[in-house]
Design brief:
Layout: H1 2-56, H2 60-84, H3 90-136, H4 138-162
Helix pairs in contact: 1-2, 1-3, 3-4
Length: 163
């Protein structure tokens, strides 16, 4: 029973490591996406400024604002690309292997326990049949249980007497 508890603890810890690794990656992805969104908003702001300057002045400050907006969009695209490529490391695979090994061992123990329970059940059923037969006719059961050893002894003693 101690090994079952140990395996359950092992599985629990492996599951916690898996959840922690996935949560860590999700947090980084959300942060990168939020920052990319913020930079995208700055880019949109700069496009608005560029449009304003385009209308206000003929080509001077417009190109500067447009260049900043394009740079913002490129940075946002790079952050989105980086965020989408984040993945868990080898620690997640190790945690999954440990969890699977623990589950396999628990399954083997469960099968062993099931076999033992089935053996006990079979013994109880045979005992029930014996008790039922004895309760229906107690004299037959007593005679059978007494006659078999007596006949065995009688046969052995007769065969020894001939030798």
């Amino acid at each position: 029973m101690e090994s079952v508890v140990r395996n359950m603890r092992l599985i629990w810890r492996a599951e916690l490591l898996i959840i922690e690794a996935k949560l860590n990656i999700a947090t980084k992805k959300i942060g990168a996406t939020a920052f990319a969104g913020l930079i995208f908003i700055f880019g949109l702001g700069m496009l608005n400024v560029a449009g304003f300057f385009a209308l206000e002045q003929e080509w001077g400050p417009v190109y500067a604002a447009l260049g900043v907006a394009i740079a913002d969009f490129l940075i946002a695209a790079l952050l989105l690309l980086w965020g989408s490529r984040l993945s868990t490391g080898p620690e997640l695979e190790l945690a999954k292997e440990v969890r699977d090994a623990g589950l396999e061992e628990l399954e083997a123990k469960a099968e062993h326990i099931q076999d033992e329970v089935m053996a006990v059940r079979d013994e109880l059923l045979s005992l029930k049949k014996s008790l039922t037969a004895f309760s229906k006719n107690p004299l037959d059961g007593t005679i059978n249980s007494l006659l078999t050893p007596i006949l065995t002894l009688l046969i052995k003693s007769l065969s020894k007497g001939k030798n």
